[in-house]
Amino acid sequence: MKKISTHILKAMKDNNDKFAVVTTYDYAFSKIVSNANIEVSLVGDSLGNVFQGRSTTIPVTIEEMAYHMNAVSRGNENSLLVCDMPFMSYSTVKDTLQNAAILMQAGAQMIKVEGGEWLAESVYKLSQCGIPVCGHVGLTPQSVNKLGGNKVQGKDKSDAEKMVKDALILQDAGADLLVVECVPSRLGADLTSALSIPVIGIGAGPDTDGQVLVSYDMLGLSDRLPKFAKNFLNETNSVQEAITLFGNEVRNGLFPGPDNCFK
Ligand code: KIV
Question: The pTM is what?
Fold first, then answer.
């Protein structure tokens, strides 16, 4: 597989080709994901949940993200490497630039930030500094205390309209990708058609350009399988086969199925 870049993902969107994203936290998984031809390897702060056993992503630090990013970068050959900026590491423009530099120097090729309009200036500055950005809207786990739990977002018309507006602002500020988490399938489809940058869904229906899953969920290693996930190891004989199957099912439009989506 050709080394994936933001330009390749954009061309895939323009060509209506779907792509797959898997979270990685270490060297061994990174190699498996890269060898399975998964387009994007995301060092997610979900490592706080599945790797550290915490109940939220809030305790995860920039040092921990850089540590995992470094390990993942050594195992990767083909995938685009995206790294989450952890809780409160991007609350000011100055902090954003300093902390993004730490993650880029640890091997990230793009950083991901959770939020909408308030991030516009930071996204613009990152972009000007040559740092690609992935936005994240919908259910933003770092804001779980403000959101009142891990709930489906954008169910009301006004919330849905605000989310599309936020996403367009992030795109205009220079974002290259967008993750949308836990929204009704209709809103996942609306965001995907409203934006020219690729949109990656998790619990956002079948119509987004890409699909992301937490690796531990898709291998049945998490405490609980979320509705939007599927255990691909149930249908395969190895981790490598399970991750390859996920990629194939996403590209062929077989995953997510109706049971994995929200109305
Ligand atoms: O932290 C993470 O793994 C994520 C994905 C669920 C999108 O942000």
Answer: 0.98
